[in-house]
Amino acid sequence: GSLERRSCLYLRTGRACCQMVEVLLAALILVCSSVSSGSAGGYTGLPALGGIYYYQYGGAYSGFSGADGERAQQLDQSFYLLKLPIARAAMAVGGCLLVFPCVLILVGVLRVPWYFPAWLLIECTLYVVIAVCTVPALYYFLHSLLSVYNSSVCKEREQLYQSKGYQGFWCSLHGAEIAAGLLGCMAAMAYLLSAGLAVRDYRTVHEQKQKPLQL
């Protein structure tokens, strides 16, 4: 079997391929979470980006002046601070989910499961636990974001920008946040698949280790 071959061939097994998919999904979740946090504020942040953003949003926000400009800045900063803990938590989870399959790939390359078959059962248990915990984590992520978007800060911010003709400041989930949720669901399914593959490989290793005894 593949588990008896040279360690480099582990990367060609089904379990390793699934783990590499998990790495990709975790990386995308991390990116989408960082996008969700945004900058410290649209009014003060977008002109600093220059280029297409500067011209798309009307130069230095010429529609704002005096008290309106100061209020826009305050609302941007308040909105940013409301979303920041959620984004940081999502980024932390994405980082952990990125490290976990990387460690398992290294374990597989070093052929630890062949010398210690019980590791595959531990791996299966970890995958099941993570897959189950992903569901409430996604609920908390989306529910917290919706709470921020339903806040008075977001509503006032949306109305202020719309009154000046600026678009893109709606109080609703944007593409990166929706993508993070979908990627989380895909990751949970990948974890369950990896759990099944770990059980299959455990049986394979157990059978192969019993062959010399049968001879």
Write the layout of secondary structure elements.
Layout: H1 14-37, H2 42-49, H3 51-56, H4 67-109, H5 112-115, H6 118-149, H7 152-163, H8 175-214
Helix pairs in contact: 1-4, 1-8, 4-6, 4-7, 6-8
Relative strand content: under 5%
Q: How many domains make up the coordinates?
A: 1
- Gyration radius over CA: 24 Å
Number of strands: 0
| Shape by Cα distribution | rod-shaped
Uncertain segments: 41-60
* Share in helix: over 70%
Question: Could you name the key traits of this structure?
Answer:
79% helix; 215 residues; 8 helices; mainly alpha
Written overview of the protein:
- Its main location: membrane.
- Residues 10-203 form the MARVEL domain.
- It comes from Horornis vulcanius.
- The chain has 215 residues and is mainly α.
- It is built from 8 helices and no strands.
- The two termini are 18 Å apart.
Sum this structure up briefly.
Keywords: Membrane, Transmembrane, Transmembrane helix. 79% of the residues lie in helices and 0% in strands.
